[in-house]
Amino acid sequence: MKKVKVAVFVSGSGSNFENLVHYFEDSPLVEVTLMVSSKADAYAMTRARRLGIPAVVRNRKELNDPSVMVPLLRRQGIGMIVLAGFLPMVPEYLINLYPQRIVNIHPSLLPKFGGKGMWGHHVHEAVKAAGEKESGITIHYVTPVCDGGEIIAQYAVDLSPDDTVDDIADKGHVLEMEHFPKVVEQVARQLAETLEDEGAAKKQILLINDMAGYGKVATAAMLPILSYMGLPVYNLPTALVSNTLDYGKFNILDTTDYITGVFPVWKELGFRFDAIATGFIVSERQARIVSEYCLEQAANGTVIFVDPIMGDEGKLYNGVTPDTIRSMQEMLTVAHLCYPNYTEACYLTGVDYHPEGVGEQEAFQLVDSLRKMGSKSVLITSMLVDGKHCVVGYNHHSKEYLKLEYTEIPVHFPGTGDIFSAVLIGHLLKGDSLVASTRKAMDAVALLIELNKDNVDKNRGIPLENYLYLL
Questions:
Q1: Which phi and psi angles does 302 have, rounded to 5°?
Q2: Which pLDDT does position 430 carry in this prediction?
Q3: Residue-wise DSSP of 208-219
Q4: CA angle 400, 404, 408 (to 5 degrees)
Q5: Which residues contact 9 (CB under 8 A, 6 or more apart)?
Q6: Across residues 323-345, what is the average pLDDT?
Q7: What's the angle, vertex CA 203, arms to CA 199 and CA 206, rounded to 5?
Q8: Average pLDDT, the chain
């Protein structure tokens, strides 16, 4: 079982931090590899230097900046965060990055004496003032609600009327020294077992899409995202393209003949995939070959995702022909989920494109038209419905229609559909629902566009290598 590397966040003397370091000194399961202090003068910094543990100071502004914190935690390989007397609120992006992997210790029996302002001596003074007959400690998961996360363990101690505030604090500290490391170990063990199970069950995905030599689109955009999400990714190029089509000039090499030689080899070697995601298809011939392969794989349980890449904003992309439309129509016949944008959905179904948008009923009729073409579940992106920008669709598992609104950022980048596709598929293969996965993909695209909207050369797409940690 792989060791869980732990970062301990502190603001004070660091007695719990030192206790954790000693407890896990020879542990095959847990290793404390980093201490983060919110105060430069905290005595915990002295302890860290003495113990030989890397330590950094991060103020509130730095703590709330993902570009500061995430690379630090990634470099150290941190799998779990332990708060030991850490005063600042943990930012929501960190909670999302480490779900059920951030643990806090609180010096009272929550929900009593918890929440804003309840820390350290303030808690013990409140316990004394209330005349409590017992106090103790609570170890809980961290959520955006202060002291509101799921309780993992609680330990109580009797109080006497003669106990001072310092006595109450000392009794709680004894409980901390005895129980906190054991609970951290328990959580880390569960985490290690979960990660081991996930590693054994990782879904293998094949990307069948074009590869651009210059620009972050298609396979060049999807592969790093899915790999970063921990999925084994394989690829089969449908075409080699000199650069993104947005530049107006490009050279394309059709790889259909190459593909016809690949599939027999893969079949002979017994290669199979849990999922296949198709994108740009060059010709009807290529579409037939790829769709037949997808149909064979689907019979063995492979999930087929189809992104019928053809156009946007009411027109076809440079180099896309009527043959491409027919090719994509054929791909829909094998799709478990397809996700065209509104323009592509109109070309696929022969429905008129309305730049002013459509009503909800018309939107769902367009969804149904794509379902009739063969796709079990459907999403249509970049759609204006009743004056609001939406993603609409149908989930064949729940037999429910969906409509998710978003705020449009009026900037165009090639490859944003591929980013949407990769994040969507990554979360679906991790077991998230279609609605949750779609929302996460929408949020990811919006965030990346916002961060890059002032880029001078937008034709090459979004420089993903700078932002993978946000996904």
A1: -75, 135
A2: 85
A3: EEEEESSSS-TH
A4: 155
A5: 35, 36, 37, 38, 81, 82, 83, 84, 86, 90
A6: 92
A7: 135
A8: 93
Is pLDDT larger for residue 14 or for residue 465? 14
The burial of 189, by beta-carbon neighbours within 10 Å (0-12 exposed, 13-18 middle, 19 or more buried), is given as: middle
Q: Quick check: is 173 catalytic?
A: no
Helix (H, G, I), strand (E, B) or coil at 176: helix
**In the chain, what is the straight-line distance between the N-terminal and C-terminal CA atoms, in Å?**
26
Tokens of 185: 């170990």
Contacts of 145 (CB under 8 A, 6+ apart): none
CA dist 15 and 169 (Å) reads 13
Q: Mean pLDDT, to the nearest integer, of 203-229?
A: 95
Cβ neighbourhood burial of 200 (10 Å; 0-12, 13-18, 19+): exposed
Q: Which of 106, 124, 140, 427 is catalytic?
A: 106
- pLDDT per position as a tens digit, 101-122: 999 999 999 999 999 899 889 9
396 and 370 Cβ atoms separated by less than 8 Å: no
Q: pTM of whole model > 0.85? A: no
Residue 326, classified by CB atoms within 10 Å of its CB into exposed (0-12), middle (13-18) or buried (19+), is middle
Element (H, E) at 254: strand 252-254
DSSP E strand boundaries for 291-332: 303-306, 311-312, 315-316
Question: CB-based burial of residue 375 (10 Å sphere; 0-12 exposed, 13-18 middle, 19+ buried)?
Answer: buried
